[in-house]
Amino acid sequence: MKYFKNALAHFKTITRHRHEVMKNCFRAGIGFQGLFHDLSKYMPAEFLPGVKYFQGDRSPNEMERETIGYSNAWMHHKGRNRHHYEYWNDYNPKTKRIEAVKMPDRYFVEMVCDRIAASKIYYGEDYTDASSLNYYLRKKGKMFINPETERDLEKILRILADKGEKKVFRILRRIARKDRIRRIRNLVKKLFR
């Protein structure tokens, strides 16, 4: 019976989160991208551990890590979802090391939308515009993230904390629009070479 309850509660949590991110993505000007946000969470490789380690007040991936030392679900998830900075780690042939790569703008925008939504879901009634920044600051210095991406993330989360969502989504729309124009120009250049 507990497994069924956890399955239902986990399904509701990830679906609420996904819908919140989709709303944020539409507000940020990347609505189509938001429609496909976190679909891998419904795959057995992520959903079943999510049910097994579900607690309701934090990510099941945290409990899975505490229990077995790592999270299979997280490794599956980060390898399929470009809105996570962890996805953007790659081998550099010059340095012969794995390095954090700067996130493309459209995925950076989705990452911010995701962080705001996750904070709203996990903090519930205790959520404030500073919640995402506070969560980030607890992790700062412990993340393997590109320095430019990290600087931009902290900057936007500070704006959220100080000026609110309206200002942040206006900035995110501007970033998304510039990224779209840049990608269209690059496509046109390739077509007419």
Describe this structure in words.
This protein has 193 residues and is mainly α. It has nine helices and two strands. The chain has helices at 2-28, 31-35, 44-52, 60-68, 72-78, 105-123, 131-139, 147-163, 165-191; strands spanning 89-92, 97-100. A two-stranded antiparallel sheet has the order 1-2. Strand 1 (89-92) and strand 2 (97-100) form a beta hairpin. Helix 1 (2-28) packs across helix 6, helix 3 (44-52) packs antiparallel against helix 5 and helix 8 packs antiparallel against helix 9. The chain is globular and about 60 Å long. The relative contact order is 0.12.
Element pattern in H and E = HHHHHEEHHHH
Form type: globular
Q: What is the quaternary state of this protein?
A: single chain
* Overall pLDDT level: 95
* pLDDT < 50 stretches: none
Q: How much is the radius of gyration in Å?
A: 18 Å
Class by alpha and beta content: mainly alpha
Name the beta content range: under 5%
- Report, as a whole number of angstroms, the end-to-end distance: 62 Å
Biggest sheet details: 2 strands, antiparallel
Widest β-sheet, arrangement of strands:
1-2
Number of helices: 9
Helix content: 55-70%
Count of extended strands: 2
Secondary structure: elements and pairs:
Elements: H1 2-28, H2 31-35, H3 44-52, H4 60-68, H5 72-78, E1 89-92, E2 97-100, H6 105-123, H7 131-139, H8 147-163, H9 165-191
Antiparallel strand pairs: 1-2
Helix pairs in contact: 1-3, 1-6, 3-5, 7-8, 8-9
